[in-house]
Amino acid sequence: MKIKNVWQIPLVVTVGQVAIFPYYIIWLKEVSLTFSLFAWMFAIFSFSAAWGFRLFQLKRSKLDSSISFIYIGMGFVYIVVGGVKHTFEYLPYLVVLLQISLGLLQGYFRAWHIEQKIYRLHVVNHYLVVGVAMIGLSFVKIVSPGVFITGFGCVLCCCGFLDFISKKKLKINSKNPVL
C-alpha cells in the first residue's frame, strides 16, 4: 500500500471493530431470547470467522484479495444490524445469517491483515487507539447501540470505497508512469 491514506484503513477497521464490539454484544443479547441462543450465535460467528480465515489462506494469490469489497460487506452487515427491529418472529434466522456473514468477512480480513507488512505497527497503534476510543465512547450517552453499529457500518463502507478508488488510481499510475 503506497498511498499514505490507504495504509491506515486496516487500522481504522480493526480499532473500529474492537470499539464497536461492546455495542454489538448488547445488540446481540437484546435479539437473543435466551443465554443459550446468545452462546449459539457467538459459536456460529466463531466458526464462520475460522472459515473466512481459512478461505484467505487457501487463496493462491494473496495480493489480489478484494479487501475493498470485504470492508464494504462488513459495513453493510453492520448497517443492517443497526437497522434491525426486535419485533418480528424471523429475527433469530436473520441473526444467524448476519453472524455467518460478519464472521466470514472478519475472519478473511484478519487473515489478510496479518499478511501485510505494516501489521506490526498497526498492532502497537491498535492498543493505544482502542484505549483512547473506549474512554471517549464511555462519555457518550446514546440509548441504542444500533446508532454506533450503523455509524461504524457507514465508516466501513467509506473505507472500502476509499480503498477501491485508491487501488484503481495506483493501477492507472503504474500503467502510465510520469517521466
Short note summarizing the structure:
By secondary structure, the chain is mainly alpha-helical.
Judging by the overall fold, what is the CATH architecture?
Up-down Bundle
> How many domains make up the 3D coordinates?
1
Q: List SSEs in N-to-C order.
A: HHHHHH
Could you please say which CATH topology applies here? Growth Hormone, Chain: A
Topology:
Layout (H helix, E strand, L loop, with lengths): L8 H23 L3 H24 L8 H17 L7 H24 L4 H20 L6 H31 L4
Helix pairs in contact: 1-5, 1-6, 2-4, 3-4, 3-6
Structure description:
The chain has 179 residues and is mainly alpha-helical. It has a single domain (10-175), classed as Up-down Bundle (Growth Hormone, Chain: A). It has six helices and no strands. The longest helix is centred in the last third of the chain and has 31 residues, at 145-175. The two termini are 22 Å apart. The model has no long low-confidence stretch (mean pLDDT 83).
Pick out its properties.
78% helix; mainly alpha; 179 residues; 6 helices; single chain; Growth Hormone, Chain: A
